Amino acid sequence: MQAPTADIGLLLEGTYPYIRGGVSSWVHQIITGLPEFTFALVFLGGQKSDYGEMQYELPPNVKHLEVHYLMDSWQESKPVKRAGNREAFADVSIMQEQFKRDAASVPRDLLARVFENLGKEGGITHADFLHSEASWEVITDKYLKFCTGPSFVDYFWTVRTMHAPLFTLAKIADHMPSVRAIHSVSTGYAGLLGSILQSRRNYPYVLTEHGIYTKERKIDLAQAGWIKDPQEELSVTLHADSGYIREMWIRFYEVIGTLAYQAANPIVSLYEGNRERQVQDGAQRERTRVVPNGISLERFESVLTARPATLPKVLGLIGRVVPIKDIKTFIRAMRSICNEMPDAEGWIVGPEDEDPQYVQECRELVASLGLEDRVKFLGFQNIADIIPQLGLMVLTSISEALPLVILEAYASGLPCLATDVGSCRELIEGQNEEDRGLGPAGAVVPIADPDATADAALRLLRDDQLWHQAQSAGLERVRRYYTQSKMFDSYREIYRQTLEQSWPA
User: Fold this and answer.
1) pLDDT at 52 exceeding the cut of 80
2) Residue 180 and residue 206 in contact, taking contact as beta carbons nearer than 8 Å
3) Which stretch of DSSP H or E encloses residue 213?
4) Which of 213, 239, 415, 493 is deepest in the core (most CB within 10 A)?
5) DSSP letter string over 9-52?
6) 179-205 pLDDT, tens per residue?
7) Complete DSSP assignment for 278-303
8) Is 415 exposed, middle or buried (0-12, 13-18, 19+ CB in 10 A)?
9) How far apart are CA 348 and CA 321, in angstroms?
10) DUF3492 domain: from which residue to which, for each copy (predicted)?
11) Rounded CA gap, 271 and 268, in Å?
12) Is 442 left (phi over 0), alpha (psi -120 to 50) or beta?
């Protein structure tokens, strides 16, 4: 038997080592902080043009890196008439029907057959999926039975687009070098690859979710302009009635998320609220556990001592310039803040290459509000250089998990203002009675509310005593509950137990 290339196969979708941000920072933290384990990295991206050079230097305990782009699954050969394996397609249909019921799992023997047949001659190859009679029969049958709106052409191409990457995942599972266990840092396509590998190779499988992938895809899909709903105007909220195609995409991500929950043990979240969401979405409670993010306090000692005696009137939003961070609410809040505090500045600090159109819209909003001299786009920066120059950290996101940037701000002596998403409220106000006794380390505001954001920011920046109380609470909170050493100890134990176990029959 071939010796494993590494202890842990890390399955990474759209993050490390090509994209900077909270999840990528966490991955780098785990790899460098646990040098006793070796890692093989499998990176999944959309299309190659979306990514540039690697943003991280790989540590010496990374023994393998392979990169795959799922949009490559659209490369087609010339159609050739094929019958297709009707039994294999029937298994897929049965699995899909299973998810339409209340059952939260698929029988292991059925799932094993589906995953074993995926991409295999005699099972369902990519060519079978695209061109076989059996595939055509399944697609047309489901359209006639269930479709309630779009034309067959729209339905047909949606099914093709949705399922084509699965054959790339099957190929990766066939050729990926041997490891002792796998760890995916999301559900989605990385989680589905984990499910396939667990089924085919019987690997122990750890799943960590920072945000809830399915929830975040719902937000993205609610706003996706590339999906054409029958109605002319779609109210872009999570509660809006959406068209059939949009619902198909949502259901697809729900299903592959459930498959990951079925295969993984343990299933890790960053805070209790997300753990409850995982259980609600199909995870077995006894497999779930919470491991909060943690940071190195020593790394920020010099940042803390560099803080000036005078409170800077600078508000910083540190994060990617993308819609989920709701940069526009921060910009609108700055207009109100500058009306009351003319010398205030807003700094937007983070990569701008992920969604150029949104970046342009944000810059145009700054210009339309007359804030060109007050709001600055600084791009990616060393956070240690930026934080001492800020008087308040601001997060206006519409979705977060447990933001590292809040912990880094606390360790640097900087209070935070954040929207009421993810774990932000417990980070700012405390997670239990003992923690809440430390007092608030800033303020929590509603989503997409520039006025509330501005009011809370002005209250903190104008009241020196309130600001220093928030600073003290944040420092003590991160020291007690969110240290890097606690996080490393938790994952060291998870990996140790995972590598010792054999998967239950």
Assistant:
1) yes
2) no
3) helix 213-223
4) 415
5) EEEEES-TTTS-SHHHHHHHHHHHH-TTS-EEEEEEES-GGG--
6) 999 999 999 999 999 999 999 999 999
7) HHHTT--GGGEEE----B-TGGGHHH
8) buried
9) 8
10) 6-285
11) 9
12) left
The domain spans of the chain are 74-78+172-294+488-500, 298-482
Q: Phi-psi category of 250—alpha, beta or left, where left has phi over 0 and alpha has psi -120 to 50?
A: alpha
Are the beta carbons of 194 and 22 closer than 8 angstroms?
no
CATH homologous superfamily of domain 298-482?
Glycogen Phosphorylase B; (3.40.50.2000)
Q: Which two tokens stand for residue 398?
A: 């519409």
Contacts of 248 (CB under 8 A, 6+ apart): 158, 162
| Polymer length in residues for the chain | 505
* Residue indicated by tokens 């600001």: 467
Q: Read off the pLDDT of residues 381-395 as tens digits, 9 standing for 90 and up.
A: 999 999 999 999 999
In 322-391, DSSP assigns E strands to: 345-349, 375-377
Q: What is the largest CA-CA distance in the chain?
A: 77
Token pair in block for residue 128: 């079978």
Both tokens of residue 277? 């969401």
205: tokens are 């499988």
Q: Do domains 74-78+172-294+488-500 and 298-482 have the same CATH topology?
A: yes
User: Residues near 275 by Cβ (< 8 Å), separated by ≥ 6?
Assistant: 269, 288, 289, 290
Give the tokens for residue 381. Answer: 């920066």
How far apart (Å, rounded) are the C-alpha atoms in residues 38 and 152?
A: 49
- pTM comes to 0.81
201/1 Cα distance (integer angstroms): 13
Q: For residue 441, what are its two tokens?
A: 């380390």
**Do residues 326 and 448 lie in contact, with contact meaning Cβ atoms separated by under 8 Å?**
yes
Class of domain 74-78+172-294+488-500: alpha beta
Q: Residue 403 is which amino acid?
A: P
Phi, psi angle pair for 349, to nearest 5°: -120, 105
